[in-house]
Specification:
alpha+beta; 22% helix; four-stranded antiparallel sheet; 102 residues; 3 helices; 4 strands
Length: 102
């Protein structure tokens, strides 16, 4: 069963483009992660300051394996010393209740 993980990141309006710029070089990094079915970074367009990182996983075990992997650690490190763009974040957990046939 597909599980969905949403990382809701609070980002000051003046820092949003910087967040997108930091994600851009690694946009395809999730493509080969076992069990990852998709990745999206969503920009708020309604005046909110919460950006969403949406990932879909084949199962909870695949997500946990990635979260405990070297790839996760590497992707979330800041070797260049840059400070985080977001001021806070939380992970939301979802599963698909109803879907279309597409």
């Amino acid at each position: 069963m597909t599980v969905i993980k949403i990382n809701a990141i609070e980002v000051p309006p003046e820092a949003g483009d910087s967040l997108a710029d930091r994600f851009a070089p690694r946009a395809g990094a999730m493509d080969d992660v076992p069990g990852c079915e998709g990745f999206e970074l969503l920009r708020p367009e309604d005046g909110r300051s919460t950006w969403l990182v949406v990932t879909r996983w084949a199962d909870e075990e695949s997500f946990e394996a990635w979260k405990n992997s070297h790839s996760f650690t590497e992707g979330h490190s800041r070797p260049d010393g840059r400070r985080p763009v977001g001021t806070s974040s939380e992970v939301w957990n979802y599963s698909i209740a109803v879907t279309s046939d597409r």
